[in-house]
Amino acid sequence: MSEAYFRVESGALGPEENFLSLDDILMSHEKLPVRTETPMPRLGAFFLERSGGAETDHAIPQGSKLELPLWLTKGLFDNKRRILSVELPKIYQQGWRTVFSADANVVDLHKLGPHFYGFGSQLLHFDNPENADISQCLLQGFEEHEMGCLWRPAQGRLWNHGGCWGDWKPKETRRCQSMLKGSGNSHCPPQENQRFLVC
């Protein structure tokens, strides 16, 4: 029996989305707050509340705040012509980044945005002075939140089998860091080193 849909891996963490991936298609339709930097003629018909009303050309005036899908925003964004300026969504602003830096595990990422990491990495394409902070937040959030989901079952297994989690985790963390840095302090054969790169 064949499946109706063969899963295509997401390309959202790369430079472009994979348009054959349902996850990337859904992520590219996430809304992004923008402000128009120039008048946009004939687009007001799509945004009736923002158009001039009595104007016949249905122009969107300069300075209008809109919410556009990511795919349209990426198509209209141009540094040289300054058609749009992209504003950060609420969950990527400083207040939420402070929450993530304190403890990423207390935030329900799926409730806030099901494509948090992919959408956040796509935000880095737009010129924003906070891009470095956003990328650090994404990396730190992934390490704490997602790796924590992997460590918790291991922690339970260690305690169930009489292991000492407090001694084991720092040793494994140092070992993995030394392998990633290539310091050569690890005592594992090279094929085993690749197995531990998830640390």
UniProtKB/TrEMBL annotation:
Where's it found, cell-wise? Nucleus
Q: Which GO terms describe its biological process?
A: mitotic DNA replication initiation
Give any Gene Ontology cellular component: GINS complex
The protein's matches in Gene3D superfamilies, at most eight in alphabetical order, are given as:
1.20.58.2050
Give the protein's function.
The GINS complex plays an essential role in the initiation of DNA replication.
> What quaternary structure, including any partners, is listed in this protein's UniProt entry?
Component of the GINS complex.
Q: What family does this belong to?
A: Belongs to the GINS3/PSF3 family.
What protein does this entry describe?
A: DNA replication complex GINS protein PSF3
